[in-house]
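Q: What residues go here?
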């Protein structure tokens, strides 16, 4: 309880008086002296669909829209602070509307509980494990190291272990400093602090967990928030379980969820999907309806290759559903570009640029998060039944063929992506 109170206090206006805090005048440092040396491009970039330019700069966590919501007076407000507090404090955001009742927020906040336990673990050390800082290991690696004869066989073992704990997808890639932050953010001091993932961990295990299909159908609403909250809770548990397995084998392992590095490029490099117009990872099985976790390790592991299954071409030439449906118009209608909408975007990558300021403002006005661009994406399908799995595979082949317009027409005609009323969600839930 005392730790929970510490989170709320950290979000009080009083914290603004801390020395060294970031302000509009004292902005986060750019890459400057931390600039990566040598070739900024990697041999697998083409296969990943990455267009990394000479102007590339690594991202400073203090520019992330959630951290700006704490230090940047253009973003920070009483409403924004209440938005953060709403994850922990009962009753915030409740109103007389379908999807925003006490019960809807109760379900959302209950979904976050596992993640909240991880967050609270190291708050007394000024760390926000899993969200601003990597999750501290529970123990040192076993002094007796298990021999690894084949990195490929060990990769298979790690994938089996990950699935045993509930991962819906696992890929493995090399550590890539381009996706690591230049600085981390200290939430109590509202200031920058040094980036902290330890050196000498050459491999990254990337896991995805799927989010609840029917809950996602309820976006926008607090009811849908269980999909995100529970997704994070599952992620927190999973990455710590996998890291603990590796530590017990005698190797180093750092579990990470929403902290320290950019999750989407890592997932693409690890062969888990492609980048979509909506700024999300599009996976083969669940489309954009996933959360992403990582484990950095020195356990010898074979790597996966990036995959392409037609997403980029479909978003590029045919589909605009996410951009059309986004209420604040935060998703571009045009082609990928290197022009960034504001400081919450990474510099020097040509891609579809999401306007995080517009997106976050909409979230705050809802008193919960939004996922409309996830709901309407034609790659978001339920594959839990054999016939829906069969349909989705056939649809994917059509979307990757010259008949892309037919694929989009079919998706709209069959009413995929339409919103489910939260009251209907509860009705179905009770009748199960
Ligand atoms: S989450 Fe909502 S507001 Fe943000 S980009 Fe997606 S549709 Fe737009
Ligand atoms: S909704 Fe359409 S344009 Fe947007 S990410 Fe999905 S497939 Fe691409």
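A:
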């Amino acid at each position: 309880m005392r730790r929970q109170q510490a989170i709320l206090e950290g979000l009080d206006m009083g914290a603004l008086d801390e020395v060294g805090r970031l302000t509009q005048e004292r902005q986060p440092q750019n890459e400057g002296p931390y600039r990566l040396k040598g070739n900024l491009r990697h041999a697998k970039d083409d296969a990943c669909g990455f267009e990394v330019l000479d102007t590339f700069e690594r991202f400073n966590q203090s520019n992330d829209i959630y951290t700006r919501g704490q230090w940047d007076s253009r973003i920070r407000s009483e409403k924004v602070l209440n938005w953060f507090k709403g994850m922990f404090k009962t009753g915030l955001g409740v109103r007389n509307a379908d999807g925003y009742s006490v019960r809807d927020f109760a379900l959302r906040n209950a979904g976050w509980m596992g993640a909240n336990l991880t967050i609270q673990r190291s708050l007394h050390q000024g760390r926000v494990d899993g969200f601003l800082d990597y999750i501290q290991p529970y123990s040192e690696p076993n002094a007796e190291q298990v021999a690894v004869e084949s990195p490929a066989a060990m990769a298979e073992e790690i994938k089996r272990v990950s699935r045993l704990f509930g991962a819906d997808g696992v890929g493995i890639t090399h550590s890539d400093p381009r996706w690591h932050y230049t600085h981390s953010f200290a939430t109590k001091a509202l200031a920058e602090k040094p980036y902290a993932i330890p050196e000498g961990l050459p491999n990254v295990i990337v896991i995805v967990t799927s989010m609840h299909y029917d809950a996602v159908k309820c976006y926008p609403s607090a009811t849908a928030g269980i999909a995100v909250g529970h997704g994070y809770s599952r992620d927190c548990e999973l990455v710590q379980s996998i890291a603990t397995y590796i530590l017990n084998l005698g190797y180093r392992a750092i579990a990470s969820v929403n902290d320290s590095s950019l999750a989407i490029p890592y997932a693409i490099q690890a062969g888990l999907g492609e980048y979509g117009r909506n700024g999300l990872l599009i996976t083969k099985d669940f489309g954009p309806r996933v959360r992403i976790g990582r484990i950095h390790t020195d356990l010898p592991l074979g790597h996966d290759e990036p995959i392409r299954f037609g997403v980029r071409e479909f978003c590029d030439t045919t589909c605009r559903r996410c951009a059309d449906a986004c209420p604040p118009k935060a998703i571009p209608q045009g082609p990928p570009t290197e022009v960034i909408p504001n400081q919450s975007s990474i510099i020097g990558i040509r891609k579809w640029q999401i306007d995080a300021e517009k997106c976050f403002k909409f979230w705050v006005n809802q008193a919960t998060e939004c996922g409309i661009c996830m709901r309407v994406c034609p790659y978001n399908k339920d594959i839990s039944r054999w016939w829906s799995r069969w349909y989705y595979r056939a649809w994917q082949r059509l979307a990757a063929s010259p008949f892309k317009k037919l694929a989009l027409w079919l998706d709209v005609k069959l009413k995929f992506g339409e919103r489910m009323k939260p009251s209907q969600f509860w009705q179905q839930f009770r009748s199960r």
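A: Context that may help when evaluating the design: Residues 10-18 have pLDDT under 50 and may be disordered. The pocket of iron/sulfur cluster (ligand 2) is lined by residues 276-278, 314-315, 319-322, 376-379 (CB under 6 Å).
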